[in-house]
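Below is how a single chain appears once it has passed through the pipeline. First comes the sequence as given, then the structure the pipeline wrote out for it. We keep one example in the README because the format questions we get most often are answered faster by looking than by reading.
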Amino acid sequence: MTAAATSEAVAAEPWVTLFNRPAFHALNLTGSARRLDARVHAADGRLVGALTGVVSDGVFVSGHSAPYGGVDLARDRETPAHVAALVDGALARLRDEGVRTARVRLPPACLGASDGLVEFTLLNRGFRVERCELNQHIDLTGLVDAGAYRAALRSPARRALRPLLADPAFRFEEATTPAAWDRAYATLAANRAARGRRLSLSRDYVERARRALGGAVTVHELLRDEDAVAAALVYRVRPGCALVVAWGDAGHGLEGSPMNLLAHRVVEQALAEGVRILDLGVSNEPEPGPSGGLEANGGLVQFKQSVLARTHPRLTLVKELA
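Resulting structure:
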C-alpha cells in the first residue's frame, strides 16, 4: 500500500487505532496468522466499533506485535450498553471462529473518553489481568502553545531547559531523507546500547512501517550544529493522540543531557499538530524483578514526571473462551 493509499484509508476510518489497521497488521503477519476484525452494530444499524486483532493457532491477540490494540469505538463517547453489546458481539464472533484464548493489550485509558468503560466491561466479562505496566503520558489539553507548557513546568525543569533553549546551535528537524532516518535510528540504537539493551525495532522494520503507514510514522532529530545529539520516533495512533515509540540521546559529548530540550521540542511539535494526549510509553523494566512482578524504572519515571507526565496502568487482559 502506498503512503497516499494509507492516508486515504486512515481518513476513511480515523477512529481505528493505528495498531489495529490492516496496513499495520500486514507488516507483522507471518505463517498461518490472519487478521480478524469483529465489528458490531447497534440495533439501529449504526456501527458501534470493533475488536480487531490477529488469530494464530486458536489464540487471538489484539495488539499483535504492537504496544497495544484494544477495542475501537466509532464515537469517542459511547454508552455502557453499546460498549457491552460490542464486547459480547465480538466475543461471540471469536468463538464462532474457533478462538480458544483471547488476549487484549489495552491502551492506557487516558487515550479515549470511553477507554475506561471498555476496560471495566472486559474485566466484568471474565477477562483477567495478565500483565500490568506503568504508562506515562502528557495531557496537552488546555495548553495553547509551548509557552504555556513551559509555564506549567516546575522550576527545576524550567531552569534545566532555559540554557538549552538559548543555545542557537540546537535545531529540531523532521527526518525527510534516508540518510537522516539512518542517522536518527543510529542515535536511538546507540542510546539503548549504552544501557546494555537493544532497540526493539530493526532499521528495516522502521523503514517498512514508514512506507506502509505514511505520515503516521515520523522521526525528529535534535541537532547541535551538524551533529545529531538526540532523536524521537513518534507514531500518530489516534486522532489527537501520539505515541513516542522511542527517544533518547547519544554520542554528543555535551556537558549536560539535551533530553529536556528534546522533550520540549516534541511537545511543541505535538501542540502544533493538534495532539491532545502525548503518550510517552511504559516506564517499567521489561522483565519481572525479584518480587516476581514488573518493577518501575525510577529514573525514567522521574524524568517523565519532570516534563509533566502523568502515570496510568497499561493492562494486558486474557480470557479463555473454550
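Residues 80-96 form the longest helix (17 residues).

See the next section for the split statistics.
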